[in-house]
Write a structure and sequence with these properties.
The structure holds 2 protein chains of 2 kinds. By secondary structure, chain A is an alpha/beta fold. Chain A has helices at residues 2-15, 23-48, 56-74, 78-100, 107-125, 151-173, 176-184, 188-193, 198-224, 234-247, 252-277, 283-298, 304-308, 379-386, 409-414, 432-438, 448-452, 457-473, 489-501, 519-534, 546-552, 570-575, 577-584, and strands at 135-136, 141-143, 146-148, 226-227, 339-350, 353-364, 368-372, 394-399, 402-403, 417-419, 507-511, 538-542, 555-560, 563-568. In chain A, the strands form 4 sheets. Chain A has a 6-stranded mixed sheet, with helices on both faces. In chain A, strands 6-5-8-9 form a 4-stranded antiparallel sheet, covered by helices on one side. The chains are: A alpha/beta, B mainly alpha.
Chain lengths: 588, 343
């Protein structure tokens, strides 16, 4: 696949120099390249990051207008304006992004429509941007004193930019940062629970996509030599989105494919359809509208996956996992028996409802504690309080003596608390190994730039090895390269545990880990948990499965209507009349 | 700015605001019943106004062909989808609603209904545009009932493109204004009120009242509200989500076309004018969080007024300001909305 893509790229690079290719076609290829840059940004913003933007054309506009104004009115050279154009785009994207990433659900795309319209109107009405007539007479780019005016001359520059963007984006996606971005779509809560600062990553992705658009705008200004606002309006923005969706919103090459189809169709439709239907219509718009509908109806993942499926699939790299116990063992700072978690008088009220009412609990290093209780007893709410998802109305929580009420969950993760979820939260289109490696997010440091430049390989190797070891521990090492969407529910729960172990936690919070597991899987899970206990981890379980719990747990806490009604070793709990009453509605 | 200008601007703002309010209500109805954020709502406005204008000029409006084509496509799709018992009866209903209805409207036009008098002309214009709403639902949205809100939004953008492209083809690039139906002018103190603009406001209020009674008093209206609250729950008590969708789209296109007819004597409409008008109604709907009708109406009046006063101080930038103002509203709405992420 990779060599195929490389050879296609190489062949496209040569197309312009084949004698006899009409310059018109080369101009078209240039337009495809320019659109691809924007669409690649959208792939990572929308397809991977889950933020749908209808307003990307506005950032193309920032790049284009900045350069057009500086070169025509202030006499700067086009090359000198490149950094300024990118800087202006970045500042605009930062301000707009800070607002946009805060929008939730469908408010986010609506927000992009709003600022897309506002910016377009500004471009069309401000004096400095030349109103609706725009700016003409923008100088061409020059290279070694030669002005690049012929489409053939700018062609290599355009496609060089595209290749750089593709390589950078692929590197990015295939890194610690990339995994964090891919986890964004899986929801904020899961990502934050292993230490990902979701807002920061959202903003970074937004900036990245905007910068690619700005670069495209800068090239556009000096290739078209004129800038008018319509190229940066809402319709243009929707066209870019169409390209990304058409190609397959999660695939970098899909962006180029989508751009090629849309740009060529637009050109051809503008020429061909009037022959049949007469001039005076804008038929391409109708066709594009129908296309949007047809894709979402029949090929929701776009065209690229359909094409990619025709080629033999490159299997995931063989993963060799060194034996030995690295993951899971605490760093020795916690002695067995020392108190890791203590909560005193936890209260959580939702309006008039008291979901948790004065719960005290503690977990020591090297013990397994279970939180038991009928439905609605407040177990999950307690979990949310302990992991920083919601803030207690009253009470104290301390991790190794440090107070953490109201501390965001990513900070709690950093303090050594790993968790799993009652409803499994894995990133469906990532492999098992990549999902587990997400848990090791805080064990790495590589940032955006190092990832893009691929300077993170040493660290990547280390993170992947940690993930591999964690998988080995739960007995799923042979599934490392499987997409998680193909796993059974039971295996998915185990993968979540492996992910939590990658955090190298002192405390492991497991929300119904045995639910959906078969008998032999439960036995295997119990062995793993016992081993972790031996290694000195503190484990807090929420569980319904009595058999599983009774043989495994050191202590059991029973919650009913938000209040602790019993606490003790399993045998005591089994004999406790209150517990029997809560569970069975009274003893006969 | 003296008080007479302020009064004039306020009047203008309320006039536009009431149109935005109508559209906002249509957005809210559509979204709550079908979860479609129907960006193309404004296109019905342009279609309504331009159809009436074409009828006035004694031409065959392009929307007639649109109606026939959409009707046939939707009807064929419906015939293909029909399953289960009572098929013959259902086929008959489909043929009636999707094939015969457009033909009847076309016949009425060719028999000269549009030339009788103003009221007949308006009725004919409505009959030409309103069925497009349910046809669009059947063609584009019915099969996507389980898609995410986002996918439905993207499809509605596609529908908007189709409607603008077809609109250009049907009505041409020129803008039109219809004749004033009422010409009286009232003078109240410093206030000059044309009966035309008064009629817009009166009719807006009337439509709102009809909607209010429909949703609160009639069984059908209550069924729509039930679907809006829970599609599954409504289905369990025998309310079909699909017929609710058809109804909601009919109401939306009726409101859109009526708005277009109302403003066509006051504003020049182009084939693509609807989008901007629709977007403003849409913003009002956002202010209401796509859920509250009164909040949407108040938001719409606010937008109308903001726009009127902006056009006094910074006429060129009024749209930029209006759209810019949405963003704080969106943030506020985002903060209010509970995160649907958790199951």
């Amino acid at each position: 696949m990779r060599t195929l893509a490389a050879s296609i790229a190489f062949l496209t690079a040569l197309v312009a120099f084949v004698p006899g290719v009409p310059p018109f076609w080369i101009s078209l290829f240039n337009l495809i390249g320019l659109a691809s840059l924007v669409a690649i940004g959208l792939v990572i913003l929308t397809g991977v990051g889950g933020m749908t933007s209808f307003g990307q054309a506005a950032f193309v506009g920032f790049g284009a207008y900045t350069s057009a104004i500086l070169t025509t009115q202030y006499g700067l050279s086009p090359w000198a304006t490149l950094p300024i154009a990118l800087l202006v785009t970045a500042v605009a994207a930062l301000l707009i992004g800070l607002v946009t990433i805060r929008l939730s659900g469908h408010y986010l795309p609506l927000g992009t429509i709003a600022w897309g319209m506002a910016i377009y109107t500004l471009f069309g009405n401000l004096q400095i941007t030349g109103g609706f007539n725009g700016i003409s007479g923008v100088p061409p780019l020059t290279l070694f004193g030669v002005a690049l005016v012929d489409p053939k001359q700018v062609y290599p520059l355009v496609w060089l930019s595209v290749v750089v963007a593709v390589v950078a984006t692929r590197n990015l996606l295939n890194s610690r940062v990339g995994r964090a971005i891919r986890a964004l779509r899986g929801g904020r809560i899961a990502a934050e629970s292993f230490g990902i600062h979701t807002e920061r990553y959202k903003l970074a992705v937004f900036l990245y996509a905007a910068l690619l658009a700005g670069l495209s705008g800068w090239l556009f200004a000096h290739i078209q030599r004129a800038v008018t606002p319509t190229a940066f309006g809402l319709n243009a923005g929707i066209e870019y989105l169409l390209m990304a969706v058409l190609g397959g919103a999660g695939h970098v090459y899909g962006a180029i494919l989508g751009a090629a189809v849309v740009v060529m169709l637009k050109d051809q439709l503008q020429d061909v359809l009037p022959i049949f239907f007469g001039s005076g219509g804008s038929y391409e718009v109708v066709v594009f509208g129908l296309m949007l509908y047809l894709i979402l109806q029949f090929a929701r993942d776009g065209l690229w996956p359909l094409i990619a499926a025709r080629f033999p699939k490159t299997t995931g790299r063989a993963i060799e996992i060194p034996s030995g116990n690295v993951v899971g063992a605490p760093d020795g700072s916690e002695r067995v028996g020392s108190e890791i978690l203590r909560a005193n008088g936890l209260v959580k009220r939702f309006g008039g409802l008291v979901a948790v009412n004065g719960v005290d609990l503690s977990v020591r290093a090297g013990e397994i504690v279970t939180l038991l209780g009928p439905n609605g007893a407040g177990k999950s709410t307690t979990f949310d309080l302990l992991t920083g998802i919601s803030r207690p109305s009253a009470g104290e929580i301390a991790l190794s003596g440090r107070r953490v009420e109201g501390v965001p969950s990513r900070r709690i993760a950093a303090l050594g608390v790993g968790r799993t979820f009652q409803h499994v939260k894995l990133v469906g289109d990532m492999t098992v190994l990549e999902n587990v490696a997400l848990g090791a997010h805080l064990r790495g440091r590589a940032g955006f730039l190092r990832s893009v430049l691929k300077l993170d390989r040493g660290e990547e190797h280390r993170l992947m090895r940690m993930a591999g070891q964690a998988l080995d521990l739960i007995g799923l090492a042979d599934q490392a390269a499987t997409p998680v969407s193909e796993l059974s529910l039971g295996s998915s729960r185990l993968v979540e545990i492996a992910r939590a172990l990658c955090l190298e936690p002192k405390l492991l919070l497991l929300d119904e880990p045995a639910a959906g597991l078969r008998k032999f899987e439960k036995d295997a899970l119990a062995l793993v948990l016992q081993r972790l206990r031996r290694d000195g981890l503190g484990i807090l379980l929420v569980e319904h499965d009595m058999d599983f719990v009774m043989n495994l747990t050191d202590r059991i806490l029973v919650l009913d209507f938000g209040t602790l009604i019993a606490e003790g070793v399993p045998a005591e709990i089994r004999a406790n009349a209150k517990v029997q009453q809560a569970y069975l509605g009274g003893v006969a | 700015m003296d008080s007479s200008i302020a009064i004039f601007l306020a009047q203008d703002g309320i006039l536009n605001g009431s149109i935005y309010a109508l559209l906002a209500v249509a957005f809210v109805i559509l979204f709550s019943v079908t979860r479609v954020i129907f960006v193309a709502q404004g296109d019905f406005v342009a279609y309504g106004g331009l159809t009436l204008s074409a009828l006035e000029r004694g031409q065959t409006p392009g929307s007639l062909w649109v109606l026939l084509v959409f009707g046939i496509v939707a009807g064929l799709l419906e015939l293909g989808r029909a399953r289960g018992f009572g098929l013959r009866q259902r086929y008959r209903a489909i043929i009636l609603a999707y094939f015969l209805l457009p033909c009847a409207v076309a016949a009425a036009h060719w028999l000269g209904m549009g030339e009788l008098n103003g009221a007949c002309r308006i009725l004919l214009a409505l009959a030409l545009v309103v069925p497009l709403g349910p046809y669009i639902y059947v063609i584009f949205f019915k099969g996507l009932a389980n898609s995410s809100t986002l996918n439905l939004l993207i499809v509605s953008v596609g529908v908007h493109w189709v409607l603008t492209g077809v609109g250009l083809l049907s009505f041409g690039a020129e803008g039109y204004r219809t004749n004033e139906m009422l010409s009286a002018v009232y003078q109240i103190g410093p206030l000059t009120i044309t009966s035309q603009s008064l009629s817009v406001i009166v009719l807006t209020v009337a439509i709102m009242l009809v909607l209010y009674f429909f949703f609160n008093r009639s069984l059908e209206g209550k069924a729509l509200r039930a679907t809006a609250i829970s599609t599954r729950g409504a289905r369990l008590v025998g309310i079909s989500a699909e017929s609710a969708g058809t109804r909601a789209f009919t109401m939306a296109s009726a409101i859109g076309a009526a708005s277009g007819i109302l403003i066509s004597p006051i504003t020049t409409l182009y084939y693509d004018s609807g989008f901007l008008i629709g977007l403003k109604g849409f913003i009002a709907a956002i202010i209401g969080g796509f859920a509250s009708y009164p909040a949407a109406v108040i938001g719409a009046l606010g937008i109308g007024l903001a726009e009127a006063f902006c056009s006094f101080w910074a006429s060129a930038l009024k749209d930029a300001i209006v759209f810019g103002l949405v963003i704080p509203v969106l943030i506020w709405r985002s903060l209010l909305s509970t995160h649907p992420e958790e199951e």
